[in-house]
Amino acid sequence: MASIKQHRYYIYGLCLETDYRFRTPMTVAPPETKAELLFFCVPVTHGCHLPADDCFYLSPDKNSRGESLVQLYATPSGYIMRFPHVADFLLSPGEIVCQLCDPKFDYMVEICLLGHVLSYYLELSGVAAIHAGAVAVDERAVLFAADRTGGKSTLVASMVKAGFPLLADDIAALEERSGMVACRHGFPQLKLTSEQALRFAGHADGFPLVHPAFDKLSVPAQQVGKVAVAALPVARVYLLERHAFDTRVDHDVEVQIESVAAGEVLIQLVRYAFLAEVLEGHGGHGCFFRGDGNDHSAETGGLRASRFHRLARITRGVAVKRLRYPSGYDLLPQVHAAVLADLNLPSHVIAAAAMAR
């Protein structure tokens, strides 16, 4: 599909070229940058017609019509990720095409693309998409992985406010390079509640909702602090466990950081895969492509097997620790201090962080 492109963005280590104008804050790439991924969005009156036996994954979550919210289909050139009655995303090496079923769902294009679709594309391309936020500390990536109610957004935003540039808000893209694990830059958005935006950005006015059905706002990261735009070596992955803190009963703020047993690290990374259920349902189906467009299925045994080996290599190259900490905005500086101490940072970095607070 040929078209004149008007925009180039950096996202997850790729230069994305598109004529689609994003509402979500994006990192602009210079016009002369070589495009590595093309994105098209075209309206259609009907989705792709595919035989039922081409469908190899149906999510257990259903829409109001009883259809699976996310569906995967195989094609000779790649895959189709279908969101019924909203859009079909056709994924092939170097290209993603969105077929939008109804113009009223235009707001869903970015929600689907920047979440499920790009995460799936990364996994197909040999990059692990982990449900974690990431900040840059002394030119290294520090990741915070948690469930949706685990306090990840608050902790990441507070670190950005304290002077540590944002690397990724919700999806951390990890790849192993000759024994070193790197985290790619995502895009400069923080998804915050109105209360969080007021605290970290200074106001909550004018920020659009990420999704009409949810209360989180799309806040440009530059409204809170700085943004890192290059891949960085990973220093730590912290698994968050936030607990309630009652000042009437608890007098000592205790932040605990402990190593995770080697045998558990792989289990945790599998658990925190952004598309854990989808990838597990994918199994060994179909081809596995990287950016070169070649079929690597014979040497990898399918996506599930290659993903397992990829995560195993990542576990050997990065330290994973459990971070238990008390909830409360006023207690976040103590959490920052514990993380910085665990990282064995130079004194000038710790001093600069203290001044930022």
What does this structure look like?
This protein is of the alpha+beta class. Helix content is 26%, strand content 31%. It is built from 9 helices and 19 strands. It has helices at 107-124, 152-161, 194-200, 262-271, 276-282, 297-300, 303-317, 332-342, 347-356; strands at residues 7-11, 14-18, 27-28, 37-43, 55-58, 71-75, 78-83, 87-92, 95-100, 128-137, 140-145, 166-168, 171-177, 180-184, 189-192, 217-220, 232-243, 256-259, 319-326. It has a 9-stranded mixed sheet, covered by helices on one side. The protein has a 5-stranded mixed barrel with strand order 10-11-17-14-13. A hairpin with a 2-residue loop joins strand 1 and strand 2. It is globular.
Q: What's the shape?
A: globular
Distinct helical segment count? 9
Q: What does the main sheet amount to?
A: 9 strands, mixed
Rg (C-alpha, Å): 21 Å
Structural class: alpha+beta
The strand count comes to 19
Strand order of the largest sheet: 3-1-2-4-9-8-7-6-5
Taking pLDDT < 50 over at least 5 consecutive residues as the criterion, the unreliable ranges are 290-300
Mean pLDDT: 86
- C-alpha termini separation: 50 Å
- Helical content (DSSP H or I, runs of 4+): 25-40%
Strand content: 25-35%
Element pattern in H and E: EEEEEEEEEHEEHEEEEHEEEHHHHEHH
